[in-house]
Amino acid sequence: MAEFSLDLNEDQLQIQQWVHDFAQNVVRPVAAEWDEREETPWPVIEEAAKVGLYSIDFFADAVGDPQGLKMALASEELAWGDAGITLAILGSTLAVSGIMGSGTDAQIGEWVPQCFGTPDKIQLGAFCVSEPDAGSDVSSLRTRAVYDEKTDEWVLNGTKAWITNGGIAGVHVVVAAVEPELKARGQAAFVVGPNTPGLSQGQKYKKMGIRASHTAEVVLDDVRIPGSHLLGGKEKLDARLARVREGKRSTTQAAMSTFEATRPLVGAQALGIARAAYEYALDYAKERKAFGRAIIENQGIAFKLADMKMDIDSARLLVWRACWMAATKKPFVSGEGSMSKLKAGEVAVRVTEEAIQILGGYGYVREYPVEQWHRDSKIYTIFEGTSEIQRLVIARSISGVHIQ
Ligand SMILES: Cc1cc2nc3c(=O)[nH]c(=O)nc-3n(C[C@H](O)[C@H](O)[C@H](O)COP(=O)(O)OP(=O)(O)OC[C@H]3O[C@@H](n4cnc5c(N)ncnc54)[C@H](O)[C@@H]3O)c2cc1C
């Protein structure tokens, strides 16, 4: 029987160091520039593809870690470099998770590699669930998928909002209502491949933070895709819908199963931002003098740093636990996936704000990276389920009560 240990193994340490070096040497030096430009950092994604970080091989190896930690380690290190660039590099993995969560082996084999492309021809993936009137409430999606029996095609119509890589991705995984009256249980996920007529980018959002990550509307106007692009296949969908119509429980919901799998990894990104800000503030507090001594010599500053470190470490333990539970197929009985993302997101917001406070006026200006980290951190309490929704998941899990 294996002993309890929080030591990372050789393989995990190696990935952690490798991604850290990439974050330090390639990502950090250009982070402010891409934040200012508010554009997709293609040269950085190209570099990540060249070294193998943006690739199906890296992804498969990282998510295949028997202890579930490699992808979390990589996510934390990359986001330590820059969160917007991290999302530009890792945003595609949300689409990958959607395909792996609902697709058949043949669909996974066909579409997952296309979410990355090749180093010579990079492609991105996008996972399209949210809509202008349905964010937290994913059960009320308006995007419709209608089956055309004559041509064996699905026809998609609707508008998706807030989509990471929306419109610039080669592969869009779209969650749509097949039977709207069945709410979330009447939905399914579809793959819209490269250059499919009818799919276009709507407005691109101007954001507070993670500005190197592209976020836009995706408009679906009579998008026709082959029947084979329904993830999981029609037979399985028909059987599921029949079960739901009979009042039996359905085991899968296309959007929620993807988010459950990815939340701890999103939490790991938030940790990376928090750690960057904490490290910077710690160094600064030792250097900066006021009233004839380093500001860290004041408890008012030193205790802030103690709390920041403690918060980051406790959030990491929750992230690692959720990753380990997912990898070892232990069910999230108390919303452990939600706990990890909730805690890490809120810690990142608090720690980056405290870091600004420690830097004083220097924390508030763009010459220093801390204000950007604070702007970047805020999204982690909003996307992939807001903090309120995470609390709802946890509260329902621990109580068995359908809390509203
Ligand atoms: C930068 C960015 C990138 C994103 N990327 C993607 C993506 O790639 N794919 C995708 O599908 N979506 C994406 N999203 C969408 C994101 O997941 C949603 O914005 C989020 O789920 C919240 O939905 P909403 O904005 O509609 O807010 P709403 O659902 O309208 O919520 C508004 C407020 O009400 C609260 N609230 C709602 N219901 C309850 C309740 N029952 N109890 C308590 N409080 C409640 C919320 O917590 C929130 O504070 C992205 C969003 C952003 C900003």
Describe the structure.
Residues 9-115 form the Acyl-CoA dehydrogenase/oxidase N-terminal domain. Residues 126-223 form the Acyl-CoA oxidase/dehydrogenase middle domain. Its cofactor is FAD. The protein is of the alpha+beta class and 404 residues long. It folds into 3 domains: 10-116, Butyryl-Coa Dehydrogenase, subunit A, domain 1 (Orthogonal Bundle); 125-245, Butyryl-CoA Dehydrogenase, subunit A, domain 2; 254-399, Up-down Bundle (Butyryl-CoA Dehydrogenase, subunit A, domain 3), CATH 1.20.140. 52% of the residues lie in helices and 14% in strands. Strands 2-3-7-6 form a 4-stranded antiparallel β-sheet, with no helix packed on it. A 3-stranded mixed β-sheet has the order 1-4-5. α9 (254-287) packs antiparallel against α10. The two termini are 43 Å apart. Flavin-adenine dinucleotide (FAD) is lined by residues 94, 127-130, 135-137, 162-164, 207, 215, 379, 382-386, 388-389, 392.
The largest beta-sheet arranges its strands as: 2-3-7-6
User: What is the strand tally?
Assistant: 9
Q: Supply the number of structural domains.
A: 3
Order of helix and strand elements from N to C terminus? HHHHHHHEEEEEEEHHEEHHHH
Count of helical regions = 13
- Rg (C-alpha, Å): 22 Å
Helix content: 40-55%
Largest β-sheet summary:
4 strands, antiparallel
CATH fold group of the largest domain: Butyryl-CoA Dehydrogenase, subunit A, domain 3
Keywords: FAD, Flavoprotein, Oxidoreductase
Family: Belongs to the acyl-CoA dehydrogenase family.
Pfam family, one: Acyl-CoA_dh_N
Domain Acyl-CoA dehydrogenase/oxidase C-terminal: 254-398
